[in-house]
Amino acid sequence: MANIYETEVAKRFTIYNSLFLDLPFDQIYRTGTLLPILSEACQSGFQKNKTPKEIIRQFFEELMADKSDEERHDLLFKMVQYIERQVVLFDSIEDASFEKFNDIKGKGTMTALIARAENDHKKEELIEKLKTFSVRLTLTAHPTQFYPGNVLAIITDLEQAIRKNDLGDVDLLLRQLGKTAFINKEKPSPYEEAVSLTWFLEYVFYPSISDIMIRILNQLNIPLHDWENPNLLKVGFWPGGDRDGNPFVTHEITKKVADKLQNSILKCYYRDIRKVRRRLTFHDVETHLIKAEKGIYNTLFGNEEGGEIFKSKDELLEVLYAARKGIVEKHGGLSLELLDEFILKVRVFGFHFASMDVRQDSRKHDDLWDALITKNDGEAALEAYHQGDEAAKIQKILSVEQLPEISAMEDPFHREMLESISSIAYIQKHNGPMGCHRYIISNNQSLLHVLEVFQLNKLLLSNGGDLLLDIVPLFETIDDLAAAHGVMEALYNNEIYREHLRKRGNKQSIMLGFSDGTKDGGYIRANWSILRAKEELTKVARQDGIDVVFFDGRGGPPARGGGNTHNFYASLGPNVENREIQITIQGQTISANYGKPVSCSYNLEQLLSAGMESHLYPSSENSLTEKQKALIDEMADISYKAYKELKNHPQFVPYLEKVTPLKFFGMTNIGSRPVKRSKGGSMKFEDLRAIPFVGAWAQMKQNIPGFFGVGKAIEDLEKQGRLGEVQQLYKDSLFFRSLLGNSMQSLAKAFYPATAYLKEDPIYGGFWELMYGEYQRSYDKILTVAGMSALLEDSPVSKESIAIRERIVLPLITIQQYAIQTILDSGKEDRALQNLILRTMFGIINAARNAA
């Protein structure tokens, strides 16, 4: 694979990269000619322990001695823009070669798993599991994607041109890139974020999910019309419904996004029904298909002529089934597969396309209930409420039979919260129950937090009937993860909520957050706490007869739960419920892993086959013994202690605020959410959002959340003479191998020479030495445990991809650190240097793809 990658990607990049020099734009030749000189100066300079300021200034003195500071900085800006386009070219070349270095029919794919199951006489067992299993990818609007929509469109076209080796088209598209802005002039609204993601729904997920399901059913010889699990692969959607810390998401936006989702799926259906009707021109078939086509058109564009519209997917399916009956009974099933494929798509995507989730922070619900109690019963009742214990508070809330009129609430935010819940009824009425059927509670810490939301939704939505909504607690911090099973056990024992669960099929979804878990507890502790929480939550649910489903808040970076998802889900073992795989994906993870039909299909199948494999082929690799658990627990404690000491260092928050580009994330115009939850000037650790927190470390090429404490844990055990135990654990446990493998990615993307100048800083020098020491220790100790001589030795393609990307952006890293170092040395804010810092952020994070 490494040789294939070298030929298909590395060499093609060298060839196509030369086209940039011929672009007919002002100063492009000069910029492209000087850039390799700067790149070489950066590599050799860091090898000689030069600082970024020394490297850049020497470059200026040698090649721009007679130029002003303004002209010098202008050249740096042009180099930044040039490198951004190199990154786009490299992305496109990698995407165009995807199936060359990924075995799309090999291990981890459903094709391979079906063949293996047939050979092992497990085909029927596989089919039975597929009937009840589900993979749900939830697209979030979390701001980690720096490409605007028009650039993403060019990337798509560029990939196709590269696939065809069409040099003319490649040249034309590179010219277009040269003229296209890479940054948004303004922050996108939540609705605009939603619109940009519906492009992926229409042109990637719709064909990919359909193709996978049709292919699987055909391989298993299952007639499409007999398939009983249309939810095998499905998509969730957060833009427009995720209110946690985003004041710009309103109930009107929520309804508008729901309408957009329905509009998008109807456009897909309209395109498909026209293709189907072109082939099925038979008597007693065509009339039904014409009716379906006109009905979809009228529903989509309005029925100005008084034509029929479809109010639900069932009404459309009724017409399609009538056409199907005509084909079977009167035309011998001719071309029936075309209609069956279309019917399956309608059953899978309904009139909702993707299921919207509503999310809000538990503290907002606490505050709302205080206002509601005061409005209903007065200040004295609120005081009595606060004096009571949790049981008394729950009793009070569950006894409330009616809420005040929304318009009667004094606080606009409280009115908006109640309107937001009411908007769920709108979505379910227009898009169907699957359109919005979950309410997620961020920062969930108690039984009270769940029942607060349950009662609010019941009073606003049920109208005396059943509440068609799942309440999903999100446990994030280390302490909350440890307490999660106790909270859920108490919830299952609450008679009112248990009756609600019974009406929802005794199914409870629980979300677990890698992002804030890692931010709170460090890399090993967070990953281990989530696995242990899953085991305890599974045990409690099984005891109470509840089907528990885990929804993982996994980001792209390993530091946020990303990395190799197939290995992660294959490694969970029998003590973790395996009914569904649900994860969040965002930013670069969407465009890089799911942005094209071939990569989307491949990665979806990887998830699906991971769930199937762990059921069909349970392995000792996936089942941790008590001794192994004790060893990981010990390592988690050591690493947690090391990470807490780092967090408590007096320079931890000041370093993030004053040295890293953290504060600039709010100026990048890539997302509608603020960088931190609270308002006000002073920065508090607990208010920092996980994405800019991880992103700031990635910009500095330090990647602290992805490895800190790992080396310390291994070293302490080595000092006890127990290194052999850790090495054996690495050999025997897929979970532990995945854990260290993902940490290797973070280490491979780190580059401490770029910030080595900070060790001389009178304020931050000691703090930098602390971080660098743990980086060196983790680097050495992970290699020792894995028995490797270099990071990612077992993943040559990833290793080579990261290496090339890091070489491309090394000048950007140097330019950014030059600006940071100059500002720190002078003690003055400089607008030109700040703009350089901001401008370099885009290329650095885009090149990382999963942002370290």
Structure description:
By secondary structure, this protein is mainly α. Helix content is 63%, strand content 6%. The protein contains 35 helices and eight strands. An eight-stranded parallel barrel has the order 1-2-3-4-5-6-7-8, surrounded by nine helices. Helix 19 (447-461) links the parallel strand 4 and strand 5 (470-475). The longest helix has 31 residues, at 796-826. The chain is globular, with a radius of gyration of 28 Å.
Summary tags:
single chain, 35 helices, 852 residues, mainly alpha
As a whole number of angstroms, the C-alpha radius of gyration is 28 Å
Give the tally of β-strands: 8
Number of helices: 35
Average pLDDT, rounded to a whole number, is 90
Sheet with the most strands: spatial strand order: 1-2-3-4-5-6-7-8
Could you describe the largest sheet, including whether it forms a barrel?
Answer: 8 strands, parallel, barrel
The percent range for helix content is 55-70%
Which structural class matches the secondary elements?
A: mainly alpha
Low-pLDDT residue intervals, each spanning 5 or more residues: none
Shape from CA axes?
Answer: globular
Hey, roughly how much beta strand do the residues contain? Answer: 5-15%
Q: What is the rounded distance between the termini?
A: 23 Å
